[in-house]
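Tokens for chain A. Residues wanted.
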């Protein structure tokens, strides 16, 4: 096991933390977020890792490797007499054939084996409606929490999703509060009986209640994204640490691709620094942050670094055997070779939610090709629907299903040109947050200016041949059924789409068929989406 790299002195000085006092309390937080059903190890593109890559030591993560890392860190901390807590910031659901096949059953079985202290509800825990989340909660040996979810009108979840939790660690009470992204009704399928409250509104009251009960060490376990976590830290007094998820952000003091330091520090309304941590996604890292409170309940130190779970971390043999047992029925489908790629096809989150990406072009072109006989002219695909890259060489059905795991179907409809532009404005409306609504396209070209206000960012829009789009003309459009129903903020599709048909083939079949027909597929960027500098 690699030794944890702290970088302590720099972080302590940066935070302006004071020197330790005699009554200090130390707690180490071990955490993951956004596993997204990556039960098996992944490759460097966050897709399934081949036997060849595994033999070469090029795999990361996997639930059996997480088990080893957790057990080793728990044993080491216990041996040193240190207090610790293990937390999951949500999104166990959706992302591989394990979820497609078993829904939440495999996820909760493995989570029970990992022995977490608590898990936040992620937005994707609602992907199969309240029923799948209910079954997960009922089977969990650990608390599943989220406080800004109002479920009184949803019988399946009523009384089953607490918002706070008090843990006893080393003779001290540690409060856990939780909140979820408020737009989960847009990004997932919670149903009409579930309502989402502003995180700050809920958390202020929850923290005050914990403090009134004598709890002065409070961790917010959130699934809202780093941008929202910063806003929450700045707005809600009394939160000492935020352990987050949702934005898949790598925070690190050593990793080259980190999006910020570990932890990020934000001042709360009282001027105190709140450490915020997140550990990327897909089980590639195990976050570890050591926090020290003084006797007043103020954080005086917070140091740590996520641990890279590469081949130097052995897989737990018992869990590995159980993974193999559950994987057996789906191996044949996953192993089917359906095509090949001349180069790596980039489907990374950072690329596909911010501009034109090769995977977006591939999927949009595949949809356009599949619908050309219907006269479809325009394709709009959400970047958030693309969940992985594909490396060069043979492409398997397992890789395709990792890229498109949501079981979305092809949807077609008709819509005026003015509403096409409105849809693209929605796609560009949350660029700062890296939201999944960003539009990948085929049949059209557009330019956006991120410096302009949301709703005014599309500065050029034409058909691929350069001809202007007529605001009053009705065009034939294709997308996926999730977006056509208003998902990811595309309510314009639901409200203004005409003659809609949402029940075409699964997008994974569309993509597989396209790759079969395009041997040694060459990824491309052709300027169909451009950013105005």
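Reply:
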């Amino acid at each position: 096991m690699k030794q944890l790299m702290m970088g302590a002195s720099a972080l302590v000085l940066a935070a302006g933390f004071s020197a330790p006092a005699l009554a200090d309390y130390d707690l180490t937080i071990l955490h993951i977020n956004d596993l997204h059903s990556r039960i098996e190890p992944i490759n460097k593109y966050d897709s399934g890792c081949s036997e060849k890559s595994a033999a070469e030591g090029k795999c990361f993560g996997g639930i059996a490797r997480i088990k080893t890392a957790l057990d080793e860190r728990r044993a080491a901390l216990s041996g040193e007499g240190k207090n610790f807590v293990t937390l999951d910031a949500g999104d166990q659901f959706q992302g591989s054939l394990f979820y497609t096949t078993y829904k939440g059953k495999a996820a909760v079985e493995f989570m029970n084996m990992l022995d977490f202290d608590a898990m936040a509800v992620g937005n994707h825990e609602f992907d199969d409606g309240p029923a799948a989340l209910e079954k997960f909660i009922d089977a969990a040996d650990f608390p599943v929490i989220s406080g800004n979810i109002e479920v009184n009108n949803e019988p399946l979840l009523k009384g089953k999703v607490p918002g706070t939790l008090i843990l006893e660690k080393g003779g001290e009470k540690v409060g856990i509060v939780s909140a979820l992204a408020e737009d989960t009704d847009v990004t997932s399928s919670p149903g009409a009986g579930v309502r989402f409250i502003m995180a700050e509104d809920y958390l202020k009251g929850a923290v005050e209640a914990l403090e009134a009960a004598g709890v002065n060490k409070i961790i917010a376990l959130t699934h809202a994204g780093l941008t929202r976590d910063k806003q929450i830290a700045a707005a809600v007094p009394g939160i000492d640490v935020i352990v987050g998820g949702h934005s898949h952000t790598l925070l690190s003091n050593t990793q080259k691709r980190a999006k910020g330091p570990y932890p990020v520090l934000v001042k709360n309304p009282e001027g105190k620094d709140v450490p915020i941590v997140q550990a990327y996604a897909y089980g590639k890292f195990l976050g570890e942050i050591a926090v020290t409170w003084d006797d007043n309940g103020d954080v005086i130190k917070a140091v740590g670094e996520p641990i890279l779970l590469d081949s130097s971390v052995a897989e737990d043999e018992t869990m590995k055997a159980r993974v193999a047992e559950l994987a057996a029925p789906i191996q044949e489908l996953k192993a089917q070779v359906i095509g090949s790629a001349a180069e790596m096809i980039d489907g990374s989150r950072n690329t596909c939610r911010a501009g034109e990406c090769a995977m977006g072009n591939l999927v949009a072109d595949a949809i356009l090709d599949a619908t050309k006989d219907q006269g479809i002219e325009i394709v709009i695909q959400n970047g958030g629907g693309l969940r992985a890259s594909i490396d060069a060489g043979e492409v398997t059905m397992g890789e395709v299903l990792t890229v498109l795991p949501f079981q979305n179907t092809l949807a077609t409809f008709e819509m005026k040109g003015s509403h096409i532009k409105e849809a693209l404005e929605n796609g560009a409306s949350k660029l700062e947050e890296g939201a999944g609504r960003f539009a990948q396209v085929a049949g059209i070209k557009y330019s956006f200016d991120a410096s302009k206000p949301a709703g005014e960012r599309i500065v050029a829009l034409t058909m691929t041949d350069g001809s202007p789009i007529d605001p009053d003309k009705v065009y034939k459009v294709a997308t996926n059924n999730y977006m056509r129903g208003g998902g990811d903020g595309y309510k314009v599709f639901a409200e203004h789409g005409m003659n809609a048909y949402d029940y075409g083939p699964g997008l994974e079949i569309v993509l597989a068929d396209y790759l079969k027909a395009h041997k040694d597929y060459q990824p491309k960027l052709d300027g169909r989406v451009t950013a105005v500098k």
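The longest helix spans residues 317-335. The two ends are 45 Å apart (CA to CA).
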